[in-house]
């Protein structure tokens, strides 16, 4: 099955740093029916950038939501009209031919979502990158992810994401799809480059990665996330010290 076009849902809030590169990579690599942007009240140049790109592509829809990431994603899903749609985070750049590389999974009737792994933009060492990819995939198996995720719309049209899930709403979406009997595929290709903000490379930001694990609420899953996020934290501290 080949999908001619699909809606793309983008969650933004003060995303000017990498937003133009992000959206240009979407249009270069995805057959976009509509770019549905859900903005959380940006005060920087996010909205002017979106307006400029709408004049170029003529299919950018801007919605506003002052709630959580859960309510923003829910609003985005509610406005999707295509058979498949895609979540893309506003601080990533999609790889070349992202959609073409994902198409081989679309012919499988039991596939509900396809996630392209994230690669941090600062990763240059091949051995560290290899370890990072393995750990990132394991984290996805526990909590999901929406950096660059293609979703069969019918699997989530009746979803009601708990509005208090400002974090781990992606885990709720992943579990919703699998509980309906569909597979969620995590792959190394396609992928996206994740341009994490400078605040991550601080001691507070580094320790915050581990703190995220404790917000999941399940002791067994917390232990799995803790070990994986420990690697993320060590790498973040390394980045901080190497500057």
Describe the structure.
With 243 residues, this protein is α/β, with parallel strands linked by helices. The protein is built from 8 helices and 8 strands; from the N terminus they run βαβαβαββαβαβαβαα. It has helices spanning 19-29, 46-57, 69-78, 98-106, 126-143, 169-179, 203-213, 219-241; strands at residues 6-12, 32-39, 60-64, 84-89, 92-94, 111-120, 148-152, 183-194. An 8-stranded mixed β-sheet has the order 3-2-1-4-7-6-8-5, sandwiched between helices. It is globular, with a radius of gyration of 17 Å. The termini are far apart. The model has no long low-confidence stretch (mean pLDDT 85).
Global mean pLDDT: 85
In percent, how helical is the residue content?
Answer: 40-55%
Q: Note the beta-strand portion.
A: 15-25%
Structural class: alpha/beta
Strand order of the largest sheet: 3-2-1-4-7-6-8-5
Please outline the major beta sheet: 8 strands, mixed
For the structure shown, list the relevant keywords.
eight-stranded mixed beta sheet; 8 helices; 8 strands; globular
Question: How would you summarize the topology of this molecule?
Answer:
Elements: E1 6-12, H1 19-29, E2 32-39, H2 46-57, E3 60-64, H3 69-78, E4 84-89, E5 92-94, H4 98-106, E6 111-120, H5 126-143, E7 148-152, H6 169-179, E8 183-194, H7 203-213, H8 219-241
Parallel strand pairs: 1-2, 1-4, 2-3, 6-8
Antiparallel strand pairs: 4-7, 5-8, 6-7
């Amino acid at each position: 099955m080949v999908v001619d076009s699909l809606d793309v849902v983008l969650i933004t809030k003060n995303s000017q740093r990498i937003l133009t590169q992000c959206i240009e990579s979407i249009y270069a690599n995805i057959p976009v029916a509509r770019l549905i942007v859900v903005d959380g009240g940006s005060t920087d140049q996010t909205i002017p950038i979106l307006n400029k790109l709408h004049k170029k592509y003529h299919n950018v829809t801007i919605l506003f939501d002052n709630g959580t990431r859960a309510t923003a994603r829910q609003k985005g899903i509610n406005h999707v009209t295509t058979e498949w749609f895609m979540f893309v985070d506003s601080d990533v750049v999609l790889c070349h031919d992202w959609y073409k590389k994902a198409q081989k999974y679309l012919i499988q009737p039991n596939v509900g979502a396809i996630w392209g792994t994230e690669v941090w933009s600062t990763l240059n060492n091949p051995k560290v990158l290899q370890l990072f990819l393995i750990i990132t995939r394991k984290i996805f198996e526990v909590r999901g992810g929406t950096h660059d995720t293609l979703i069969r719309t019918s699997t989530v049209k009746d979803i009601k994401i708990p509005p208090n899930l400002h974090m781990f709403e992606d885990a709720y979406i992943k579990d919703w799809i699998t509980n309906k009997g569909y597979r969620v595929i995590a792959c190394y290709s396609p992928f996206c480059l994740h341009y994490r903000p400078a605040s991550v490379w601080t001691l507070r930001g580094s320790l915050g990665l581990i703190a995220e694990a404790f917000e999941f609420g399940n002791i067994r899953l917390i232990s799995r996330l803790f070990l994986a996020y420990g690697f993320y934290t060590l790498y973040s501290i390394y980045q901080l010290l190497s500057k």
